[in-house]
Amino acid sequence: MKTLKYYYHQLFKTDTVLEDAPIKTKTIQDSFDYLEQRMHQKERLFFVRFGDGEFITLLKKDHRNYIYNEALAKEIEGSFRIKDDNYLISCPINYPYDEFHAKGIYKQFSWQSEMIEVMDTMDIKTNVLYENPCIFQCMAVFKPQSLRRFLNDHVRSKSKMFIGSTSKEVAEKLYGPIDYYVKIPVKNAYETIEEWWPEIEKNADKVELIIPSAGSTSNAIALRLWHMDIDAKLIDFGSIVDAVDRKVSRTWIRLKGHTALKILNDSPAFTLKEKLNNFGKDVKFFFRNQFI
């Protein structure tokens, strides 16, 4: 069900500014559908995400989960510069207004102009239609059945490697059996990359799917594996594994993380208190989301 604000926008506002914008990003649904379509191909396919963390690094600033590292910045930039039809880059700039817009879940960054300046400074080609980096959190919140189907068809049945700080048990609830589990630090993962990278390098060619869950370091992982010509799929799913872990690491999880749990095949049990609390969250979110 679409919101009142969505219908108001469709009737009285137009995104004419985006029509001539040099940087364009797909809608949530278009990007999700395109990725799902491309997952059927036999050739390797990488889906990498650029968000606020990556741009904070490119601005030479510290992030909440890692300190600025010049080498990391170079690898992030290198990932952004790859131009190949099988290397899908998602970018958090110029989101078209769609049915998924919701405060705390999915909205334009207030400092978008600074991101654009970063791209201009690096002289990155901008006449590209980028994928949307928020597809997984939005589908988890608003269309969990569609995301569950995606996971069943393209993730849970595949041999895979998971690279992250989330426990293997929790990651397997979301992604299915993990053949190679690479543990990394919760914070400042890039500072120790040379310690855990050999395990990735040794086994990456033995799986069908690689899931980096390492924040901005995921782009360094993707860049290295791409240059190694690894013949596999790679997808950065972002923070949805935190929702499964019931770790309130993002505003969207605090607001609607309980709804995202519907992407699991085995739905978790809630206590009566949790059910009432979740119901209250849903009612409050529904009415607030009609307008902001």
Automatic annotation (TrEMBL):
Glycosyltransferase GT-D fold domain segment(s): 47-241
Highest taxon in the source lineage: Bacteria
A family per Pfam: GT-D
InterPro entries linked: GT-D
Name of the featured protein: Uncharacterized protein DUF1792
